[in-house]
Amino acid sequence: MKLHTSKAKSFPTAVKPRLVSTRFRAAYLRLIIFILLAALLLAACGGSDAPASDAEEAPAAADTATPAPEPDPTDTPVPIDTPLPDPTDTPAPEPEPTNTPEAEPEPPPTAAPMEASESAEAPGMGQTFVIAAEESEARFSIDEELFGQPKTVVGVTNAISGEIRVDAANPGASVIGPIQIEAGTFITDNDRRNRAIRRFILQSNRYQYITFSSTALSGMPESVAVGDEIEFEVTGDLTVREVTNSVLFIVTLRVISESELWGSAATILVLDDFELTIPEVPSVANVGEEFIVEFYFVARAQ
Q1: Alpha-carbon distance 270 to 107, whole Å?
Q2: Which residue stretches belong to region Disordered (predicted)?
Q3: Is residue 220 part of a domain?
Q4: Does residue 81 sit in helix, strand or coil?
Q5: What is the mean pLDDT of residues 23-51?
Q6: Would you call 274 exposed, middle or buried from its count of C-beta atoms within 10 A (0-12, 13-18, 19+)?
Q7: What pLDDT does 65 receive?
Q8: What is the CATH number of the domain that holds 162?
Q9: Percentage of residues in the chain having pLDDT higher than 90
Q10: Residue span of the structural domain in which 266 resides
Q11: Is residue 102 part of a domain?
Q12: By the 8 A CB rule, do 137 and 158 touch?
């Protein structure tokens, strides 16, 4: 009896767990179904979002694709045609250069030189010629008695500098000088005389230069051509030591070429006019009161 009772008690406990497990499975299935339904709903809602994000990603891709078709900007040469008018605008300033060429007719200065070249026979309109010292010479000559015998003393130097400005169109407007001679460079045939000229007569240690500048030309022809030899007078200021006097030179000028002149000039001066005194020497007597000054020159275009 005890055994039967125990079996009867154990049986219902074995059946109970089966019922519980069955109920649990049913609830579990319902839960899974609910979750699946919720997932489906969420998937449905998310599906609409997903395509939207896909669409957004697509334009992004399209955007990235458009930079790739940046070759299209190379297709934009058509719009580049629109900037092309800008270069055509730059050609618009090109008329400005055409305006400057209009200013180029300003070279009437070129016309003036052309006129000078038309008178090519002339040594050059308003041209400056510089004296070539090594080919030129200044000299003086004075008469005296040396040991009772008549003698002409000549002093020479080529330490001469200066210029001649020639106006071929109007020769009378030409200018000679300033011309300078180094006073201490005159050489005669006697060393004692040379020292006397430097120290006592010209005092070259104090007055280095003898100078001449023209103030007027007379007897000039209306024009000058290459090959001409002309003679005219030049009046100008001659300064020896501290004394300046107006003197007149007779000039002979030869036009060798358009770039070279040869000439000579001469005048007669008085010792007293320039306050020049000759030292008294026992062997020298009867020194002349007048002396001759001469120039021989070669001048070339500067």
Answers
A1: 53
A2: 47-122
A3: yes
A4: helix
A5: 60
A6: buried
A7: 42
A8: 2.40.128.110
A9: 46
A10: 122-301
A11: no
A12: yes
pLDDT at position 15 is 42
Give Cβ neighbours of residue 148 (< 8 Å, ≥ 6 apart). Answer: 285
Question: How many structural domains comprise the chain?
Answer: 1
pLDDT tens profile 85-109: 444 444 444 544 444 444 444 444 4
| Residue 161 and residue 179 in contact, taking contact as beta carbons nearer than 8 Å | yes
Q: How far apart are CA 267 and CA 216, in angstroms?
A: 15
Q: Is residue 200 part of a domain?
A: yes
Show the tokens assigned to 130.
Answer: 């510089």
| Phi-psi map region of 177: left, alpha, beta (phi>0 left; psi -120 to 50 alpha) | left
Question: What tokens were used for 266?
Answer: 């001469």
The total number of residues shown for the chain amounts to 302
Complete DSSP assignment for 15-55: HHHHHHHHHHHHHHHHHHHHHHHHHHHHHHHHHHHHHHHHH
Which one is predicted more confidently, 122 or 229?
229
DSSP state letters, 98-125: HHHHHHTT--HHHHHHHHHHHTTTSS-T
Report d(CA 31, CA 300) in Å as an integer.
Answer: 128
pLDDT in tens, 198-240: 999 999 999 999 999 999 999 988 888 888 899 999 999 999 9
